[in-house]
Every structure is written in structure tokens, then in C-alpha cells.
């Protein structure tokens, strides 16, 4: 088994692990979670032996082979499938030895090696490798292309396939779903669920974790804690623990306050002095319970768009591609405020092409794209991260968008995306992929779009940021179209699914489970009849459910708008109250010559407090009505 015993790990001045212990048994599939920067990747380096603990030990059975996914792939001339086959080192060693035996004419050795090759399932290795890379989105023709012909994201897929080919008792995967589309994620999920070895998996995709792992290791404040069950079970247990911890903390604080009151009351009383001293010593010995802090480092929302024309955008008989035959043909659609659309479809079918057409980044070959006057597009894709100025700080990026804005307002806005204090003023170049994605998202939100187009927005975002993004998208007043492999996000923020396949864009009458079945059906019958865009049975009920969900959202919108209105009013009145309190704190205001000004400010303070109380009551009443309507 894999064991960490009283392990401490420091990187520079930071203590990532502090005298923590962990045991992973053979065959367990363990998800590793925690905020970015807590040390998840460093844990993998410890297990691989690339790092040594400062104290304690890390032990792994000597006969365990460990496989992990490299984060970079050189531009090799080697064909893709040969690169993937290299992941099975024992197979390659056996093939090399067999070639030597054949060259030497050693029949006895050849027979032994052929038998060993059969035991290794070496004769089916090439077909297994081909199934792996096809499942990750490569076409049969591309398996013979050189590795150098592929972009960075596609090389990462080859690295993943190479890792999955390895014969390993322990498999380490660090964010394997980044750079994958939903189809590839579903296939990887099935492969890992059937994997017989031990798995350590770092992922921020809760659906993926739920389907694959049976344990969760949680990083928190330098410790590792193992939970049984999948990610959803962990969330429930962790929430209960935090509630218990907070209750224990509050109880202890009451006891501490009681002891302090006793000491202050009887410190000078000779008869009670010994008891007071005894209580102080008891206080020193008391094991302190820390407050349970909510893990919500990111808090932001999409501001109300300046305009909401209806429709926002129309495509009419549109065909689009990149030269030559179009990828999309005869597309006709309209987008309206309140639309929540998730795009599904096989890799290469044209989902990103459609997003680029909607964004106006790709001109149609035929037909028309007709934007409404006042359309403001917010387009989030991974290439936006590459367009950040590496020398500019997050603050400067935002200030360039709005030079007239107050610096503190910009700092407050960036704080909602995790850029607080000096982090807002540091250059962008050394930021991690997740931090750059957060900054690109912040710049998009600040522009107040009324049409959001998001192509894999959760890549590199941790669970906390994904949660904050989900909450913000649920309240977004404009239209949303997204491509994502994060099924939790799709279920939470979309109420309609469109299928992009065979050049067409059409409504998919089903849910994500139906889409998985559709993919399996499509794979099982290549060249056969094309599956319909939705389940064969229950089409009407699925359509009705989605229509009902859209109607429900529209029905609740006035209540949500009222709640936002009162929240803005409470913010305004709170700022006004603070300004009045600052003015009343001026000692000079209480001189005789300023009595009239003092009386005026006190009257204003009373009026503001009255209005603030009324706004809070109205907000509470609207919130209760919304809860009742949702029940």
C-alpha cells in the first residue's frame, strides 16, 4: 500500500504538508481535491520520488509500477500511435528482444518471447492503442500523423493515451480532463472506472469524480484527510463537519468569555485570586477550536446589461467553415434574452465553429448573421488567456477597459475573482493557468455583455471558482451559449441542448444521460443509420420538461429582479449610512457654531436607517416569496 507517515513538506517558505499521514490500499480509486496552490501536484511529486519530505516518510511497495501523465510533449517525428504504444514499456522491451532474437536466428529465445508477448496481450496492443486515441478524439487517419503535427492540447491527449497504455499498479492523473471535450471525458470515465489498479486523480470535475473514485483525499491547512465515498458524499460529510466545528467553536468562545469575566471580576479579590489564577491556567491548557471558514474565495455576479434587444442575434441559412467545404450548413436560429443553451456534438463536428460564428470572429460562407442593435458579446475561450499582456497586472488590464473608474472600485471588483491585495498589482506572466483564466473571465464580466459565448470555460478553474461561475451564470439576464465537458455546469446553467453533428444544428430532445446513450449508439454502428437527435422514446416528455424549465425561469425572473433591486438599494443606503457616520465622527461638528449642521446630519442618519430597515424588510419578503415559489 501507499503510505505517508508524519510527513512534512515545504516548498520555499510555504508549508504544504504538516506532520500528516495517509494510507491508500491497492485497488482504491482516490480523488485528490483542495484549493489551487495547496499542494496537490506536489503530493504526486512526493509519490514519484521527485521530491523528498522534510520530515516523516513516503513509502510505496517496491514492486509497484507507477505511471503518470507528463505535462509537456516534445515535437517528435514519431507517429502518434507509436508514441502511445511506447507507454507500455514491457511490451516495447519484449518487442526489441524479439527483434534481436530473430536477427540472431535464436529459435528457442524467439519461442519464449512470443509466449511472453502473448501473455502481455501484445498482439492486440496496437488495436487497444488505436481505441484509446480514437476515444480521445483522434480520427483513424491521424493516428499515423507525427506527434509534431498536433497542437499542444492534442499532444496532451496523446500523453494521456500513452499513460493509460502503461502497465502500472499505481496511476497518477493530474487534471486529465483539461483539453478534452465531453465525448472524450465520457470515454475516459468508463476506462478509469474499469481500471483494476490503484488510482490517484486530481480533478475539479465533480461529475467525473463521482463516476470514477471511491475515496476523496482533501487538502486543508497542511493536512490530508481521507473520506470514503465519491465527491458528492465528501461534500455532504465535509459540510456536516464544518457545521459541527463552528458549533464547537462558538461553545468554546462562550466558555472563554465566561472565564475572562470571572478573572476580571475576582482578580483583585484575595479570597478568589487563587481560583482566578487556576482558571487562567485552564484557559492556557485549553485546545483551541478554530472557526469554520466557508470556502468561498470567489464572489462575483454579472452586472445587468445596458440593453437587452429581442432577439439578440439571428443566423439565417448560414454555412461556415475555414475554406473548402463548409463545416456547418443551412443553420437557422435565433437567440433571445434568457436563453440557456448547451452545445453537444462529437469532436470536430463544429461546436467551436458555431461559437466563433455567433461571436462574429468567423464570417459565414453563405447565409447571414444578423446582430441586433445594441448586441454586446462576451466571448470566453482558452485563446483569450494567451492574449493577456504578460507584463501588465490584473489591475492594469481592468483599468485599460475603464480608465475613468475609481481605483478602489477596480480593486474591489478584482477581489471577487481572487486578486486581492498585492496579487492585483503583480505582473500576469507568472500566474498559473487557473489564475489567468480567472482574469480573462473578470475582464469579460466587466464588459457587461448581453450574449455570453463560452467555449470550455471551466478548464483550469478549481471547484470553488466553478461554483462561483455557476451561481453567477444562473442569475445572468442575457443569453448564454456554452460548450463544456463539465456536466455539472451544463445541468446547472442550461435548460436547452443543441446537437451539432453532420453539418447541422438542431435541438437535442433529451438530457446528458441520453446524449451518452446517443454516443454509444453512434459508435456501435459506424456507417449505419444515423442516430436521431434525442432518445427514441419519451421525446415529448423530454421536450415538455425543458419547455417547462424555461417557462419556470421566466416566471421566477420578476422575483429575482425584485431581489436584485432591493440588494442594490441596501448597498446604496449602507454606503450612505457609512458616509454619515464618518461625518458625525468629526469632533469639530459638535462645536456650538455647527449645531444646525449636526441636527441636519442626525436627521439624515435617522431617515437613512429607516429606509435601510424598510429595504431589508422588502428584500426579505421577496426572498421568502422566491423560496416558496421554488418549493
UniProtKB/TrEMBL annotation:
Designated name of the protein: ATP-binding cassette domain-containing protein
Region (Disordered): 523-556
Domain of life, per lineage: Bacteria
Pfam families: ABC_tran (PF00005), ABC_tran_CTD (PF16326), ABC_tran_Xtn (PF12848)
Compositional bias annotation for Basic and acidic residues: 537-556
InterPro entries: AAA+_ATPase, ABC_tran_C, ABC_tran_Xtn, ABC_transporter-like_ATP-bd, ABC_transporter-like_CS, ABCF, P-loop_NTPase, Val-tRNA_synth_C_sf
Record keywords, A-Z: ATP-binding, Coiled coil, Nucleotide-binding, Repeat
Recorded GO MF terms: ATP binding
Coiled coil region boundaries: 556-618
